[in-house]
Amino acid sequence: MKKKLYILLAVVITSFAACQKLDVPPVNIVQDADLFTTEAGVDAYISRMYYTMPIEDFKYHPVGAFNQTGQVGSPHAISGEAVSRDLGNVTETHNYWSAAYLLIRDCNYFIATMPTYASNHKPEQVQMWIAEAQFVRAFTYFALVKRYGGVPLVDKLLTKPGETISELASEIEELKIPRSSEEAIWDFVAKELDAVYITLPETNKSNRANKYVAAALKSRAMLYAGTIAKYNTIDLTTGGIRLCGVPASKAVTYFKAAYDAANLLNGKYALYKNKWSATDKEAQYQNFVSLFLDNSTANRESIFARQFKYPDLTHMYDALNVPKQWEGPQGNYSSETLPTLNLVEMYEGFPKNPDGTIQTMDAGGKYLTYTNTMDIFANVEPRLRATVILPGDLFKSVQIEVRRGVFTGASTGGLSDLTPGNASTAYPATLLGSATVAANLDAANLVTLSNGTKITRSGASGIYTAIGANATGGTYTGFYVRKYLSPEKPQAETLPNRSDQQFIEFRYGEVVLNKAEAAYELFLLGQGATYATEALTLTNSIRERAGASLYVAINNINDVRTERRRELAFENKTIWDLRRWRIANLEQNNTIYKALIPIMLQDQSKYILDVRNEERGVNYTFQTRWYYNQIPTAAIAKSLNLVQNPGW
After folding, report:
1. Is 197 exposed, middle or buried (0-12, 13-18, 19+ CB in 10 A)?
2. Which whole number is the average pLDDT over 451-462?
3. What 8-state DSSP symbol labels residue 445?
4. pLDDT for 255 beyond 80
5. What distance in Å separates the CA atoms of residue 553 and residue 544, rounded to the nearest whole number?
6. What pLDDT, in 10s, does the model give residues 134-175?
7. Is 451 left (phi over 0), alpha (psi -120 to 50) or beta?
8. Whether the model pTM is above 0.85
9. Rounded Cα–Cα distance for residues 598 and 616 (Å)
10. Which of 626, 632, 572 is nearest to 55 (CA)?
11. How many CA atoms does the CB half-sphere of 248 hold within 13 Å?
């Protein structure tokens, strides 16, 4: 049966690709009766809708859109979590518009057509399937409204089954639906998910939504809407309809909706602690690593995950992101996601200056020295190690060697800052580095330290002096991403489109943070001190699992936000948080992100850690018009009823 389902799904995908123009029902190859009269046919249709849902998973790219198979450049490079050789200061440019309305059309067609064939199935099955189509439609409208604000609201099939192109042409004007208000779209998403929650069961097939997935989406969506109501200042109003922006008076309503939706998951899911121990930092580290890789039913934190399986459905996450030492046999494509020091400094457990930045200099302005690059991170919170590979930490039981070079000048009396003011200046000639792996391994280029040890100039995983887009590779920030990397994949299999670990789209940790943020915002909006108390309890539940110290109090909304950024790093959530909080333009304002550069001192056989702007010096500036994406010009050209967003 499974094989037959795969074949039918393939036929359905091909058929829809051939006939999805305007709103014309599919008339070739697969007819309605072939699909809607059997459970396998319905499953194939629904599976296709889930597959094309705009999930920002391993195959998402801000330039290349969804379900990409060969796109390089890390999506995390637009949020400040990381930098990447192949993606710089850009916003999302793939124009998720036509594909969204094709998917909405599929949902509407299913919702309108399924009742015709209801007699072939149990009533509860039909209701569940229709609710799933509503869920996919709500998910898609959420993807649209967070990008564009108000969009055309199409919640029914616009054409009649069997209509010809000529008949459609006579009605073309009425199909040019104008944009609804942004508020109306948020309200539609909420109403849709309320209905879905009532209808869907508590459990469903793998890769399919249940009622708690709908609640998790509502919690996320309403939190987004609440922050737009409170923090957005952009206003686009035409014909009395506010297309961009939400009345501030709706903030409490939306935050309360987010809070209430999160409550629906109480007792149904839990924070993953299967390998956790309150007294064992290593266990806490392994627990957080396993959270993202455990796709068994024992993972009660995972609410909704996209499952992959080699060779049928794969991705490139390992090949694109492993450290240079673990790069696969086809060569120079690893090291795409390079975490910034800015992100690392959000975590705790290492020496910091009064301003919260990492402390690598003594009171006299001289570098502190370390026997190993991990010494400074000896007491770091375990969640950071499970999120970022720190220089010198272990991955697949191998030390990830990161070193920019060997400083051959005098340092025994103390060494002053090589790059004053975190500058993007070049290092002195007394710092010997390597441009290529071959040069690094050349025996003639080895350096003898004061203790008699001979070492390569650069570490095996960088930092190389050739750091361009098509150069040697390796980190140039001092870090690699750790979250989601498979610790078991052999190097020979670390190839493009050979990875198949799951991507968790909704997890309980996010729901807890949604509730905490909504609660604290409700407190700030005068809804009662009990909300602040609950926000503290919820946030500390996340921090306890992370191995971090507990908050005594939440001092301001930034405490809640920063905890969210720590917990959800590299899950494709942060950029949308920065956008909804309306702080992206403040964080990215002629910004060059920071690196932590290990350097070996030849005359001491010890390391220093240099804090500086990353050497490529890529400047990030978030334009305020990017808070609302550009509506595709092709869409506007087809319909004068569509109004373009501000600044485009």
Report:
1. buried
2. 98
3. G
4. yes
5. 14
6. 999 999 999 999 999 999 999 998 866 555 545 544 454 556
7. alpha
8. yes
9. 17
10. 572
11. 7
